[in-house]
Design brief:
Layout (H helix, E strand, L loop, with lengths): L1 H26 L23 H19 L6 H28 L18 H8 L1 H9 L9 H25 L5 H4 L3 H29 L7
Helix pairs in contact: 1-2, 1-4, 1-5, 2-3, 2-5, 3-5, 3-6, 3-8, 6-8
Length: about 220
């Protein structure tokens, strides 16, 4: 039994390491189609305001903090908060991206990636819109999460800040960060952000409640 448990633990560690490497490769631009660079505006800073990248940064921070927490338990409070934020962000990223990707790709994919021959490789899409969510799910499976109300405040401040950033970006460039915001009225965008906030809150509280109820042991690996 101990051997089986050991194999499980090592399989989990290896899987998390592979996912983390792929995510880092995406963030470093190593998974992008080189052809797309021909059509990109070299002065554009859109990569810095894409929610996908912000969520990936939160995931990278949470994962690395998790490594430290497992050695120094005093950091549990910070890790507990950060992984709840990162996990909720990644859930939002996965739901919105893959829904629109299959229903109406131009609403979520950058215009350059729609050009024939410039399509984003599937590994890049997985590395940015699915693997981070899986990594966060795996990373918290040996930790008994405790609901943190500070996450609610972070979500509220972030949603308001991102809505404001999107408006400023649209004012500067003539279009919003994501195509699905361009096809809506201002009221529609406000409602969209309210629904996104509600969805994140629902996922956050539901997930932590389920984990708290059914994970009786902490650090069970």
């Amino acid at each position: 039994m101990h051997a089986a448990k050991g194999h499980y633990v090592w399989s989990l560690y290896i899987t998390k390491a592979v996912l983390f490497v792929i995510i880092m490769m995406y963030m470093l631009g190593m998974l992008e189609n080189p052809e797309v660079e021909k059509y990109k505006d070299p002065d554009s800073k859109i990569e810095y305001v894409k929610f996908t990248n912000i969520a990936c940064v939160a995931t990278i921070l949470a994962f690395n903090l998790g490594l430290i927490y497992r050695k120094y338990k005093v950091l549990f409070g910070v890790y507990n908060l950060l992984i709840q934020v990162a996990l909720s962000f990644e859930f939002l990223t996965a739901v919105i991206f893959w829904s629109l990707y299959f229903l109406n790709r131009p609403l979520i994919v950058s215009p350059e990636a729609l050009i024939e021959g410039c399509e984003t490789p599937i590994i890049a899409n997985l590395g940015s819109h699915l693997f981070p969510l899986i990594l966060m799910l795996l990373d918290q499976c040996d930790v008994k999460l405790v609901i943190n109300r500070s996450a609610d405040l972070i979500f509220l401040i972030f949603i308001i800040g991102y809505y404001t950033t999107s408006k400023i970006w649209a004012g500067l460039t003539g279009k919003h960060i994501y195509g699905f915001l361009d096809v809506q009225s201002e009221l529609g965008r406000i409602v969209t952000f309210i629904l996104i906030f509600a969805g994140v809150e629902l996922f956050h509280h539901s997930f932590v409640m389920i984990r708290t109820r059914y994970n009786k042991k902490q650090n069970f690996l």
